[in-house]
Amino acid sequence: MKKKKGFIAVSLIYSFFLVFLMIMLASITKNAQNRQLLRVFKNDLQAYLNDSEFIVTLLPSRTYRVNEVVSFADENWQVIKDNGSSVVLILQRTLNKTEITSALGVAANNTTYFNNSCTDSLCRVRMCTNSYSYNYCSYGNANAYRYYSWENSIAKPIIDYWFEQHEILQRICRYAYDQSAGTRICQRNTLIRMSYSDGSKTYRSYARLATYQEAAANQQWATSSSASWTLTRYTQSAGKSFIYALNRNAYQNADVLTLRPVIEVRKS
């Protein structure tokens, strides 16, 4: 009888030991799985942050004053207009030598595109070329003449290139080709594809120059020594094309100005 009771006691102790081992093994396995999941989560989170996805994509919802300086996409901008649900901004700085020469693929001393040369401190861009060109608007005689327009200006490919190469803006809006639209658009509803005119044709894009009307509306950036070209209708005189800069007629290739892109950002 004693042997039987001893056998039962040993069996119970052994059974409890086995149960304990199973619980411990299950706990160790669970902890290992949790550590692996935590490691994957941390790696994914780090990759998410490293990819700069965690950035401000909208402007705070408030009223913005004309000429107010705001920070967006790692740049400083001046307010052109508060449209209620969105804000039109112009880059506070002018485009630099690297941005402009890279867009055009020309040297900084190319006087066809620049006044004397494009320097690090100031890069004054001609709106059109010095001679007749199929690519960029030009002046000439009656047999070699092409009217100014935004689509065949020197400035347009520079503004387009700047926007497409701006890493933060691209990540903010996820700029990609959309098959249904047949063009590249912002996949995120953050930047507005603006509709605007050069005085003779209407365009749509996410970046442009300011219009003459915007420049004339008491804008500080339009009257500075490094004023930007504006979008406006050309006028013709003595066989040459003129376009407007603020408070004057700017001869399209002799009077040269800087470039400041304009974008429109939604509020949160």
Please, could you describe this protein's structure?
This protein has 268 residues and is of the alpha+beta class. The protein folds into 2 domains: 51 residues; 198 residues, no CATH class. The chain is 30% helix and 19% strand. The chain has 5 helices and 11 strands. The strands form 4 sheets. Strands 1-2-3-11 form a 4-stranded antiparallel sheet, with no helix packed on it. Helix 2 crosses helix 3. The protein starts with a helix and ends with a strand. About 2% of the residues have low confidence.
H-E order: HEEEHHHEEEEHEEEE
Distance between the termini: 83 Å
> What characteristic shape results from the CA principal axes?
elongated
Low-pLDDT segments? 238-242
Q: What is the number of helices?
A: 5
- How large a portion of the residues is in β-strands, by DSSP E? 15-25%
Describe the sheet with the most strands: 4 strands, antiparallel
Q: What average pLDDT do the residues reach?
A: 76
- As a whole number of angstroms, the C-alpha radius of gyration is 31 Å
Category by helix and strand content: alpha+beta
Question: How many beta-strand segments?
Answer: 11
Major sheet: arrangement of strands: 1-2-3-11
Helix content: 25-40%
What is the count of structural domains?
Answer: 2
